[in-house]
Amino acid sequence: MSHLLIRSPKHCANKQGFNVNKFNKKLFYAFSTFFISILSLVFLIWLILRPSKPEFFLREADIYQLNLSGPHLLNSSIQITLVSKNPNKKVGVFYDQLQVYASYKGQQITIDESLPPFYQGHEDSNLLSASLMGTGLPVAPSFGYEVGRDQTAGKLVLSLKVNGRLRWKVGTWVSGRYRFNVDCVTIMAFGPNVGSGPLSSKQGSQCSTTV
To answer: C-alpha angle 206/186/178, rounded to 5°?
Structure first.
């Protein structure tokens, strides 16, 4: 007598569900492998082309106004010219945000000035100019004393700060945003023997950059 094998509907459903689950797992593993491979490739390219941080130089700084309008309120007017350089041969830089201000003895003496965003190609340089102003800015009670002491010493040390965000560009790939900070220091002749006109520094100085 022959035996007829009859599968119950429940048994068929279980087998079909097992095949679907197995297919989904294979699809997930294939997608994961592909995604990890892409990330590894991008990371490898990043290691090979690891970008050097941008370089900034203070080309010129002129102080037209720096005086107290009240006991602890400052009016200031400063003009600066910076040079921005991308030292990378294969990496471009998008500057999405740039904020510039001046400080003296650790005190901010102008409001933040925004510079327009721009793209900097491989080994390119750009000239950046900013007019920094301050009206009635609060300063420490010792501000006037510090300025007077520097005038007696014959020199004034001014700091220029740049804060912003940038993105790296390698081929068609563009990175996420990174914060960067630039600190420039210049020393100006300052004293009773200095002629009329703005306090100026045209000797130029390299700035420190952190990303």
So the answer is: 50
Question: What is the pLDDT at residue 103?
Answer: 96
CB 88 within 8 A of CB 52: yes
**What is the spatial distance between Cα 19 and Cα 43, in angstroms, rounded to a whole number?**
36
- Write down the domain spans for the chain: 53-210
Q: Tell me which residue of 3, 132, 4 sits closest to 74, measured CA to CA.
A: 132
Residue 15: its pLDDT value, please?
Answer: 52
Distance CA 1, CA 28 (A): 48
Q: Is 142 helix (H, G, I), strand (E, B) or coil?
A: coil
**Fold annotation for 53-210:** Immunoglobulin-like (2.60.40)
Give residue 170's pLDDT band: very low, low, confident or very high (50, 70, 90): confident
Average pLDDT, the chain: 85
Which one-letter DSSP state was computed for residue 26?
H
Number of Cβ within 10 Å of residue 140's Cβ equals 12
pLDDT of residue 19: 62
- The DSSP call for residue 110 is S
> Is this structure's pTM higher than 0.85?
no
Among 53, 59, 54, 74, smallest CA distance to 160 is for 59
